[in-house]
Amino acid sequence: MNTFPDFGLLPSLIKTLKALKIHTPTEIQKNAIPMMMSGQSVVGVSETGSGKTLTYALPILHLLKTLENEGNPVSEGGTPRAIVLVPSRDLGEQVSKVFKNYTHDTRLRVRPVLGGTTFEQSRRSIQGEFEILLATPGRLLQLMDKDLISFSDVRFIVFDEADQMLDDGFLRESQEIVNACPEDTPLALFSATVSQPVQELMNSLFTKAEVVRSSGAGKVVKTLTTKNETVIDGLRWPIFEKLIKQKPEGGTIVFTNTREQCDKLADEIEKKGFSCVVYRGEMDKNHRRTNLNKFRKGEVDLLISTDLAARGLDLANVGRVINFHLPQDMSNYLHRVGRTARAGKEGLVVNLVTERDLPLIAKLEGKGQSVKELKSRFKDKDGKRLHAPEELRKPKPVKAKTKKTEKPEQSKRKSSKPKFKPKPYNPKK
């Protein structure tokens, strides 16, 4: 099946696809859409930017609209027919936008119940009749506990970005949600990588599912160019400053490993006269969303983030990713670089590489070189360790000197006091 009409989708969906100039399905869409439309459970493992959201959105919209066309519409409030589980509010809002692109003609209703919003907002969202529920597991369980929602008519459950969701400890919650739905409800799971928690979920809930892996799963896409910059003596900033003076087409996401590193780098960037916004955990959610929107709209072209921005976010204008600090895990690396070179577009990733990053670089380059061999990049032609120029090295802090008069005065005071000497112990006394 090489075109979307080949899947037998409703004319209203084909019309919208043409209007959005989406003509050729991706590899994961070719393999997974027919299975979902036939009511089969599916596990889809595919590289980031390969169109996984549309892979499950189209079959869901087709199946639910077909039920309505056959005279079987939703007739009760708070009773969804499809559940899409997402790990975060940001990803949920993004998925909601994808669905709404295709509901103008189908007139199907999507209702979000997401963490990061008030419970009252979620309660109001599910009042009345609707077809598709978009939820984070924790908020959905709260609604279930208060008997505010019914799963008696659920026809499909989707886990999107499952590895991120399950890394946060949602395995038990996910199982509870599935158990509350009708028996043998078809399930779909989509992820760019298969972590251990995802494998556990597959082993428990997806034993009947067909596993579909795209040829690019677990790899960087072919349209991504990678540059590794060697960092000598830990001096990242001189290399980084040259990079941010170069303006690629589109924005740049800069990744650090911790929130502290993120804030420190952002402060340094602004001190040097550059503009940036921060996107990380443990910050005001409205502030975080505002920063993301500024970057998305192109108002600021530099986004400094932790791995929070690495998974699921679909940012169309990202031309470059810089790993200011590299992750140790290949899975995290693939998610990070997947923010650029999406949907067949070209992109660039620049890695600032220290000696501690060499195990990951050995895997990425795939040339069979050992970490010991790669250490030659940090040595000169004579085999001596390279060092940055003296003027670039950070000056060592100077210890405050004490006044010369202080020590003699102290010693005088001490010597003026008679020292107490204990008498030797005499057992006869």
Which helices and strands, and how do they pair?
Layout: H1 11-19, H2 27-37, E1 42-45, H3 52-69, E2 82-85, H4 89-101, H5 103-106, E3 110-113, H6 119-125, E4 132-135, H7 137-145, E5 156-160, H8 162-167, H9 171-179, E6 187-191, H10 196-205, E7 210-213, E8 224-230, H11 237-245, E9 251-255, H12 259-271, E10 277-279, H13 285-296, E11 302-305, E12 318-323, H14 330-337, E13 347-353, H15 358-365, H16 371-374, H17 406-416
Parallel strand pairs: 1-6, 1-7, 2-4, 2-5, 3-4, 5-6, 8-13, 9-11, 9-12, 10-11, 12-13
Helix pairs in contact: 2-3, 7-9
- By CATH, the topology of the largest domain is Rossmann fold
- CATH architecture of the largest domain, by name, is 3-Layer(aba) Sandwich
| Large-scale geometry | elongated
Helix/strand order: HHEHEHHEHEHEHHEHEEHEHEHEEHEHHH
Strand proportion: 5-15%
Residue share in helices? 25-40%
Parts with pLDDT < 50 across at least 5 consecutive residues: 403-417
- CATH C-level of the largest domain: Alpha Beta
Counting DSSP E segments of at least 2 residues, the number of strands comes to: 13
Supply the number of structural domains.
2
Concise account of the structure shown:
By secondary structure, the protein is α/β, with parallel strands linked by helices. It has 17 helices and 13 strands.
Task: Please describe what this structure looks like.
With 429 residues, the chain is α/β, with parallel strands linked by helices. The chain folds into 2 domains: 4-213, P-loop containing nucleotide triphosphate hydrolases (Rossmann fold, 3-Layer(aba) Sandwich); 224-387, Rossmann fold (3-Layer(aba) Sandwich). Helix content is 38%, strand content 14%. It contains 17 helices and 13 strands. The protein has helices at residues 11-19, 27-37, 52-69, 89-101, 103-106, 119-125, 137-145, 162-167, 171-179, 196-205, 237-245, 259-271, 285-296, 330-337, 358-365, 371-374, 406-416; strands spanning 42-45, 82-85, 110-113, 132-135, 156-160, 187-191, 210-213, 224-230, 251-255, 277-279, 302-305, 318-323, 347-353. It has a 7-stranded parallel β-sheet with strand order 3-4-2-5-6-1-7.
